[in-house]
Amino acid sequence: MKKTIFISFFLLLIIAGNGQAYVTKTGFIRFYSDSPLEKIEALNRTVNVALDAGTGDLVFRVLMKSFVFEKALMQEHFNENYVESDKFPNSTFLGKVTNIKEVNFSKDGTYPVTIDGKLTIHGETRQISEKGTFEIREGRVSGKAKFNIALSDYKISIPGAVTDNISKIIEITVDVVLEKFNK
Predict the structure, then answer these.
(1) CA–CA distance, 33 with 36 (Å, rounded to integer)
(2) Which of 8, 20, 111, 147 could be joined to 103 by an S-S link, Cβ 3.0–4.6 Å?
(3) pTM of the predicted structure, to 2 decimals
(4) Cα angle 71, 77, 81; round to 5
(5) What range does the domain containing 140 cover?
(6) Given a cut of 80, is residue 174 above it in pLDDT?
(7) How far apart, in whole angstroms, are the C-alpha atoms of residue 29 and residue 70?
(8) 64: which DSSP letter?
(9) Cβ atoms of residues 137 and 111 within 8 Å
């Protein structure tokens, strides 16, 4: 509950700030596990994101129960056994685009970005730094990144019976389209 209040407050600070704010409630995150026995993919199309183009402040909020799997049983195991969605309903990222001054928000083009911040999953927070791109097109910001996380970094345990079914390293793909927030 405290994290939800904090995230909401942080989003309001960004939007109320002097910089240009870009937001979405329909961001996309995919995670993919490729193990010798099984490939597991989950999609989430209800990711909340806010970016302050002036400061580079960036916030993501992901409702864990919004990940959709091909098989209902996988989704059930994900929520109940692995990420414990009732106990840890959200994943968050609080960070900054470190090279925001290199992005020209008034000129269409593709810009490489570096994003540093704190990723919280399953109640565990880790500092990460990842590369991605911002594509500016007709006033919208399309942000893309692909990176890997280790389940052990977030204290997500895999039961011995299925340890060969799930990769210990998960590929995360982020694809969001942010629109300018009009006050």
Answers:
(1) 10
(2) 111
(3) 0.88
(4) 170
(5) 2-180
(6) yes
(7) 15
(8) G
(9) no
